[in-house]
Amino acid sequence: MADSASLSPLNSPSAASSKNAGTADFTALFNDMVTNAVGVLKGAEAVAVAGVQGQVPVQQVVEAVMAAEQTLQGALAVRDKVVAAYLELSRMSI
């Protein structure tokens, strides 16, 4: 009779590489999200400075600041979910 561990798809090399690919995909996605958020915030800051100097119309400054605010709200929501997930995992019994 075959060993049940050898039949399990979770123990196969392809399952392990699939796990690593999933982790890499999540890491790349998270990295892209953070990079994009930082870019939006820096862009809004540059537009705000240009607006103070009178080089940019007020409407463009407001739009940039609102985009930065939405980006920051999204980043905070993701952070809150990650912290909640971590706390949930830390409460689990082993």
Concise summary:
This protein is mainly alpha-helical and 94 residues long. The protein is 83% helix and 0% strand. It has helices at residues 4-7, 13-52, 58-91.
Describe how the helices and strands are arranged.
Elements: H1 4-7, H2 13-52, H3 58-91
Helix pairs in contact: 2-3
Description:
- It is a single chain.
- The chain has one domain (11-91).
- The protein is built from 3 helices and no strands.
- It has helices at residues 4-7, 13-52, 58-91.
- Helix 2 (13-52) runs antiparallel to helix 3.
- The protein is elongated, with a radius of gyration of 22 Å.
- The model is unreliable at 4-8 (pLDDT under 50).
How many structural domains in the coordinates?
1
State the total count of DSSP E strands.
Answer: 0
Shape: elongated
| Sheet having the most strands | none
Structural class designation: mainly alpha
Please estimate the helix content. Answer: over 70%
CA gyration radius, whole angstroms: 22 Å
Q: Give me the number of helical elements.
A: 3
Sheet-strand content, in percent, reads under 5%
- Uncertain runs with pLDDT below 50, 5 residues or more? 4-8
| Average pLDDT level | 84
Distance between the termini: 32 Å
Order of helices and strands: HHH
